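chain below, 143 aa
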Amino acid sequence: IQNIYIDHDVMHGATFPPQEWQRFLTHCFADFFSLPWEEFVLEHNRHHASTVDLLEQGEFGWDPEEFHYALQQWAGPFGENWYKYMLTVPWIPVIHFFGLNDTGSLFALEWWCHFPDEGAGGKCNKEFWSKWVPRRIKHNAFV
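prediction:
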């Protein structure tokens, strides 16, 4: 848990480390594969841009954190729906264990299916093969 707090503080402060090797210190050993540092920062920024009010996920577009909160939001207000929370909340640690968290492998797969955004006319993004795929391979080869 402490690791994600450190990552979060770094993302809001010094988002790009002065040395290239320092990108591999924060979260890369959290799972078998994960997001490269640059995409980790981009994902977090997109989360803040799309969800200003945490009570309304994805208010301004797709939020990468959306599924994390889906189980709790489906349940609705606690008072009248307490039984729904009994069904959904126990699954949250399970999905985190399987890697659906900021530094996990399932989350990386979810992000990779949504980013980078498609190009004009629904075509592949121009930088997908030249920029993003090599970065992902380099990071995960290290992991």
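The CA atoms of residues 100 and 107 lie 5 Å apart. Residues 128-142 form the longest helix (15 residues).
thats it, cya
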